[in-house]
Prior knowledge:
Helices cover 64% and strands 3% of the residues. By secondary structure, it is mainly α. The chain folds into 2 domains: 13-89, Arc Repressor Mutant, subunit A (Orthogonal Bundle); 97-249, Four Helix Bundle (Hemerythrin (Met), subunit A).
Amino acid sequence: MSLPHPSPSSAEMPRRRSRSLALELVDALGARIRDERYPAGARLPTEAEIVAEFGVSRTVVREALSKLQASGLVQTRHGIGTFVVGLGDAAPFRVAPEQLATLQDVIAVLELRIAVETEAAALAAQRRDAAQLARMREALDAFAVAVEEGRDAIGPDFQFHQEIARATGNARFVDLMSALGTGAIPRARLRGAVERSEEQKAYLKRVNVEHESILDAIAAGDAEAARAAMRTHLANSRERRRRAAAAVRS
């Protein structure tokens, strides 16, 4: 495989093309790691060997290796070489607080949640037991109390969604919700979106009505209704953030 050389046709092209070549090299080396041509524990070819094979500069190679190391695929041991860590040992998934700093960041997480939690709700409807339903009910009751007391109810909100994940009987759903944490609840990062207390209370009551619809479907064992109710709930939240983002831009 050979990567194209940067074109000298403009003053800006070398730097831009260097960045592009580094990403192409990341893809090429990453593919070899994934198909185990470079298995876990193996040492990557030397910098000079990669330069010769791919026809790129040492700067491009160093940038590509830095990106692979940041992604957890490789580890550089100074004076020895760069070694494959392996896909199973890559950095665990997490959403850091700084990745939820803007409305667009929050919308992106909501889209992930729509994809995952709609199916979680359906599975919970099929697999939940009485104790799990009781914990979901406790979370919604705590949510209602928090709203009446003028609090944001983020804790009970997250607890409700986490209890649904537990009711799937699949620990991976729980792991993902835990990785997202309370930052997955949109108002946890954007508390200024609703300013007046009465408006906030009305908004949170609407949210809890959506929660009640989800719980009703799970309690009834209706997987399709649970899936639809969860999708409606999270899609409504996404649309509220999209409108807020549009208002900021206008």
